[in-house]
Amino acid sequence: MANKQVTVATIKEMKQKGEPITMITAYDVAMSRNVNEAGVDMILVGDSLGNVILGYNSTVPVTMDEMIHHTKAVMRGNSTALVVGDMPFMSYQASIVDAMYNAARFLKETGCTAVKLEGGSEVVPLVERLTQAGIPVCAHIGLTPQSVNQLGGFKVQGKDIAAAQKMIDDAKALEAAGAFACVLECVPAALAAKVTSELKTMAIGAGNGCDGQVLVCNDLLGVSTGFCAKFVKKYANLHDTTVEAVKEYIADVKARTFPAPEHTFKIDDAVLEKLY
Ligand code: KIV
């Protein structure tokens, strides 16, 4: 377990020392406790909540109230990780005033340290305002899932000169605006390494030349079957473990071998005898 509270200054120090930074998503208290015990540096309460936990088919429907609810749960299980709340779709795009209000909700109502928002140069004035107001911002460029309808699907980003140059320009502008880190999603590794010379990068599908890595906890743990992105490494197969365990439970209940005496409460015979 990381034995000291991770702060924005810690993340800066880790970049300077070249020490890889670890980040994982969590959406509830149990996962938060477990990933803290494992020693993760940062927890992202991602709006991937929408797909992973709530069963939406994109992150677009996720609301501020849903994000706050789950971030509060994560904070109850957190000990030392730096927790980042993810600003959901349309909680920051309509106006700076809305965005400031919603970002402040994360810090005031949940106690998390930072917020994450998607976008490049278009969010730079907002990143400046938030950091000036004392709200640390993690940016997110490359594949930005909230814009999936505009991007036309979940595709690798920055493959032509204009798009790759825009990514580098965005990274420079976000760094200058005060973003303390930036998620880089679905970006060719060599381009991601160049972007990493501009600001602190957390890669998801962006290769090994970034400052750190981030994965969705359910992907890393193999909680579900079905589509799995190329960039995911499954470190466990909790889907099979869960299905096997529940099958065993069902069989035990049907065979009346569960609950066994050790799972059962007792009462004195003298009490029982007095009942009519
Ligand atoms: O919402 C999320 O979980 C994310 C990660 C994919 C970085 O943005």
What does this structure look like?
With 276 residues, this protein is α/β, with parallel strands linked by helices. It is 42% helix and 14% strand. The chain has 12 helices and 8 strands. It has helices at 8-17, 29-38, 49-52, 64-77, 96-110, 124-132, 148-151, 161-177, 189-196, 217-220, 238-254, 269-273; strands spanning 21-25, 42-45, 82-86, 114-118, 137-142, 181-185, 201-204, 212-215. It has an 8-stranded parallel β-barrel with strand order 1-2-3-4-5-6-7-8, surrounded by 6 helices. Helix 6 links the parallel strand 4 (114-118) and strand 5. Helix 5 crosses helix 6 (124-132). The site of 3-methyl-2-oxobutanoic acid has 11 residues, from loops.
Short synopsis of the structure:
With 276 residues, this protein is an alpha/beta fold.
Layout: helices, strands, pairs:
Elements: H1 8-17, E1 21-25, H2 29-38, E2 42-45, H3 49-52, H4 64-77, E3 82-86, H5 96-110, E4 114-118, H6 124-132, E5 137-142, H7 148-151, H8 161-177, E6 181-185, H9 189-196, E7 201-204, E8 212-215, H10 217-220, H11 238-254, H12 269-273
Helix pairs in contact: 2-4, 4-5, 5-6, 6-8, 8-9
The chain binds 3-methyl-2-oxobutanoic acid.
